Amino acid sequence: MEETEIDLNGERLVLDVSGALWWPAQAMLVFSDIHLEKGSSFAMRGQMLPPYDTRTALKRMQAVVARYAPKRIMSLGDAFHDRDAAGRLDADERAMLSGFSQGADWIWITGNHDPAPPSWLGGAIVEEYRLGGLVFRHEPGVFFQPGEVAGHLHPCTTVTMRGRSLRRRCFVADGTRMVLPAFGAYAGGLDLWEPAIHGLFQGTFGAYVLGQARVYAAKGRGDYHSARRKASDDSQPSRTAISTVESP
Q: Residue 53 to residues 34, 48, 184: CA-CA distances in angstroms?
């Protein structure tokens, strides 16, 4: 497959087509806003959705982890949709989640949906994490810090291809800060032109859209784009930005 690379505050990062972020120098893989058990949370309020969103997300995570073999895995907050979501995982799902920690150290950034991830997950549970030139937190900071990597906002944008308009999840970055797309099947999205997103960037920025086979550089604000495409022989999942879930 083709990798899309970007420079952020002096660090080289790979934007994975799944919506995950890969940091080669640190062998670290980052997932944002997985929102496990969002479907069951909605069901408890009377909105019935296919109840397989958690299993779908975990299978997609397994594919990405197998591709990169990370030494560190980070959840950038909101891994669980609510405080009780971890208790609704079935035995197989708990085993899938626990299995990720067998070959990698886990870092759990607390989010607004999961301010207290369960201790049985293992790994470090922190509000933010600093490494090299980057600082990881769930919500973008009120005051700008170079190298900030955040989630929470679920950025999306609309692209036009062959006369059709498609709404796709995207990374947003300007070389000094970045917002990751949501990974969860039912996470939804906020248009990057909403003030909560574009207001984070004082000058030009780029949008990097999740396609079926690779990440595409789309128009942001101005002419900024630092992405580079790099050929790779690794395989990739056949489905990426899913709009529905797979039944088992």
A: 10, 12, 8
CA dihedral 120, 126, 127, 130 (to 10 degrees): -150
- Intra-chain end-to-end CA distance of the chain, in Å: 27
- For 43-84, the pLDDT digits (tens) are 566 666 666 788 899 999 999 999 999 999 999 988 887 777
Query: What whole-number distance in Å separates Cα of residue 189 and Cα of residue 149?
Result: 17
- Alpha carbon of 10 to those of 132, 188, 196, 216: distances in Å? 9, 31, 25, 21
- Greatest C-alpha distance within the chain: 49
Contact 30, 23 (CB under 8 A): yes
Tokens encoding 137: 């937190």
User: Coil, helix or strand for 16?
Assistant: coil
In CATH terms, the fold of domain 2-231 is Purple Acid Phosphatase; chain A, domain 2 (3.60.21)
When pLDDT is cut at 50, 70 and 90, the band that residue 146 belongs to is very high
Query: For 181, phi and psi rounded to 5 degrees?
Result: -75, 160
pLDDT at residue 27, as a whole number: 98
CA neighbor of 88 nearest in space, from 65, 114, 110, 69:
114
pTM: 0.85
Please report, rounded to a whole number, the percentage of residues in the chain having pLDDT higher than 90: 51
